[in-house]
Amino acid sequence: MVEKKKFSIIGGDLRNVKLAEFIAAEGNSVNIYGFDKAGFDVKIKQSSTLEEAINGSDVIIGPIPCSNDNEFINAPFHSEKILIHDVFKLMTKNQLFIAGRISEKIVHLAQVCNVYNVDMLEREEMAVLNAIPTAEGAIQIAMEEMPITLHNSNTLVLGYGRIGKTLAKMLHGIGANVFVEARKYADIAWIKSFGYKTVSLSELTQTIKDMNVIFNTIPSVVLNNDILKTLNPDCLIIDLASKPGGVDFDKAKDLGLRAIWALSLPGKVAPVTAAEFIKDTVFNIIEELGV
Amino acid sequence: MVEKKKFSIIGGDLRNVKLAEFIAAEGNSVNIYGFDKAGFDVKIKQSSTLEEAINGSDVIIGPIPCSNDNEFINAPFHSEKILIHDVFKLMTKNQLFIAGRISEKIVHLAQVCNVYNVDMLEREEMAVLNAIPTAEGAIQIAMEEMPITLHNSNTLVLGYGRIGKTLAKMLHGIGANVFVEARKYADIAWIKSFGYKTVSLSELTQTIKDMNVIFNTIPSVVLNNDILKTLNPDCLIIDLASKPGGVDFDKAKDLGLRAIWALSLPGKVAPVTAAEFIKDTVFNIIEELGV
Amino acid sequence: MVEKKKFSIIGGDLRNVKLAEFIAAEGNSVNIYGFDKAGFDVKIKQSSTLEEAINGSDVIIGPIPCSNDNEFINAPFHSEKILIHDVFKLMTKNQLFIAGRISEKIVHLAQVCNVYNVDMLEREEMAVLNAIPTAEGAIQIAMEEMPITLHNSNTLVLGYGRIGKTLAKMLHGIGANVFVEARKYADIAWIKSFGYKTVSLSELTQTIKDMNVIFNTIPSVVLNNDILKTLNPDCLIIDLASKPGGVDFDKAKDLGLRAIWALSLPGKVAPVTAAEFIKDTVFNIIEELGV
Amino acid sequence: MVEKKKFSIIGGDLRNVKLAEFIAAEGNSVNIYGFDKAGFDVKIKQSSTLEEAINGSDVIIGPIPCSNDNEFINAPFHSEKILIHDVFKLMTKNQLFIAGRISEKIVHLAQVCNVYNVDMLEREEMAVLNAIPTAEGAIQIAMEEMPITLHNSNTLVLGYGRIGKTLAKMLHGIGANVFVEARKYADIAWIKSFGYKTVSLSELTQTIKDMNVIFNTIPSVVLNNDILKTLNPDCLIIDLASKPGGVDFDKAKDLGLRAIWALSLPGKVAPVTAAEFIKDTVFNIIEELGV
């Protein structure tokens, strides 16, 4: 059991508000700053200054992503801009800074300011847990967009990493016919073990014709013109891969195919669950570092 | 194998259009009538008169529901009104009329006109199959409305009939914690067998506090004021029961609870799948009657 | 909650010994009689006479099956024979007699003696629960007898009653390819809903060739000579149907096919679980009767 | 598609006999040697000499394990001993030698003889596939040994590697309550994602008391005296870990606990499936090496 600590939550979206509530609910002290124009009810009293928020805390938690411009904390619910440099200047060397997607530039700034920092998005367990709301979000989109049930439909998952594994399992649980494209022999063995149908890259053009929906998780353009042309015109494409994505969207449009690029689903479809996973990860980091 | 027949599809929504396509795709002859202002592409040539449509057919298929006023065929995609009486007058005694929810009044009219008719919604297999899109639709709504994932959330299904069984299975497949309220000892045994948690009516007020979402399938007001008051304010209620429904919606509103009455989901969330199930049921009826 | 009562357990096998322990563990008073030569440890003090065992009890529980000859209680662990008539003569009209498979003859005797009796095997919930150890026992036999894994093997379940449903679900859970033969349209709809492959009787000879194991649950000779001849010689047959069974065992032997008639599995493969299900059923009977 | 090749199968058990049949069934030429006293029917003509068997082949496949003494091929079905050195001397440098558990000593001998060799047990996909019959074998043993059903029983899997993952999934599929002990945060996240209950090492003594069966997959003595003492006396232990195993078997015996060390299950419980997985792996090796 991690002993009680003092936390500061600086900026971020609904996830960070919920995170503050969850951490407080476990008996920890929590300061929050950067939510003065949040439209919803915030149960924790907001600190009036950045200094008041940071002072005396053990752990300072920033947003996901940490910043959109490498200069200001990403704080969509705040009326004023919060300089990352100001946060770091107020921190002492015994305080820990945790946020998501801390760019090289920000890491450099942290070093200059002598601030110990951890990027929670680089934690394996966070990526595994985030695959859950990502997969559910993808399923929600498929249900909304398709005039058929996922049950008994032909679904293809491209890639068998964390999202691929989680998504395949949920699709199977709903009753879809699950096909998974993977290359490594070991992945193919796992796919067989879980009872999905494996599709090798060479069989792809053959199999893909009968698919009702394709979920891509590979961050490289797998669904190029040649493959898109073979698709059933009713086939829905949901791309879950980060930039550059896995679909030639222009060609898809030309061919009249519906292709949706769905990014950052956890914060969008299940912010409260996402906040819980952030909490788990933050506590793991603290336990590991012995803060 | 059912041998090739002649079908007429008269009125209805997208489901009946798809039904016509599916029946034609299996090599049968299909006339359609009642879709002259359908906004979408109809692949089958429409008959120019009701008489042309009905004449020479083996089976005449009407909409679900058959009529909204017991007088006219329910034909939302048609510019003119189609009298049920006109349909029946044009039919001979060797032709079979199939539609959904054929009211007593329409049955009476059919008898007067010597028209043999079958209500497809009274077919057990149709009800079982329709539970699939109903359950998926309910899950879609839950995903859209909840800020948490269904995975690992506490879900309660009230009633263990066709929809309850199908929904419990899918929720379990996505990774939700599934509680089912049922009364009959045999149902409780089945719930245990499937690995869900059983909740008896006497335990309901205790268990219900921890639920994140409740799906009602019982057509009687189970979620009355006393029970609604015990709910967590964030708990979502999705009522799938036909009239009178299972929720005191006024009280729910007073208590600030979100309660959604979701009816006729198959035609809304998965019209193409629903059409396929209609087709299966129509063919079963034909096979059974030896038409 | 059922209030505490006095029980007598008379005869039976390990299940009744465990049943006595379970009932006692819930705070009830329990007399047992008919286990004087049980080789294993019996935790409850045995009554020295039948009269002592029965006197003052609310409920007298006999074995499953109640008797093998309609005269004596089925008591394989007892050194002396216990006349059913003696049990009934000692009972008063306020006492309830519960056992399994109470024959017409025994029912008649009970009426003559003014003994109120309930056959627990006629309880729907008992049959549903017993399907669980039956299905597991069938799977165990298949695993022992087959040189291949059930995972990814072709398994056919004949019949979709309580055992068929439970068995199909477990086979699917292990990763087998599950085919189910059923006739009713509604059953076929359920099989589709659960994601198994349906096989109609007319397709049976075609499909059955590729099966690795067949589980029969239909109490009528489905696997007759004509069908047995089409089987793969390595195919294993496990018959779970009560008399007359579903397999022409002589023909199977002639054809060199392995066919196993596996009856009364719950008491054999999982007596402790079976005892728990008996306890649940006994308590349901008591609650229903308001004893 | 791998093009047709010439194979030699030298020694081994039933798996290698089936392997030969499977490879031949796909249109390849297969010589076999080392089965002259096999009690069962061998469908492929046996070569009369080792030289005849090896000469002209592309791939020579030995047994699993390759040898028990580093000198002779493991050939339980052969009347004479086959020297590994003789095999290697007969091979040319264009021929490939594949077997399981090729010891350092044998690797050295191969190098001396200029024989290219691959240990199939070091292939990741083989280990993943072999986890399937291992998990089924473990379940079979549990079913045979326990007087309760796996359904609804408390099962603990120690370790979440390939066997742990596969076993947890199957136990869950049968309806057991699945607890998994793992240490890495990412593994714990996966366990949560799959819906099992996680047990950390610190919680182990608390949780373990309620278990009905424990499956160990960790090759280090986790179940030591201190932990064994906390177990329910009826708890069954099945150890699947290779030497030194994970159980203090002497202490378990002293405490009256049933502990079974179940090794090499694939070849024992499902030799035909195991042969199929060997075939898949052999073809992967060939494809990868471009033989």
From TrEMBL, chains A, B, C, D:
Organism superkingdom: Bacteria
Molecular function in Gene Ontology: NAD binding
Residue span(s) of domain D-isomer specific 2-hydroxyacid dehydrogenase NAD-binding: 145-238
Pfam families associated with the record: 2-Hacid_dh_C (PF02826), DpaA_N (PF16924)
Domain Dipicolinate synthase subunit A N-terminal: residue ranges: 6-120
Identification of the protein by name: Dipicolinate synthase subunit A domain-containing protein
Originating organism: Ruminiclostridium cellobioparum subsp. termitidis CT1112
High-level lineage: Bacteria, Bacillati, Bacillota, Clostridia, Eubacteriales
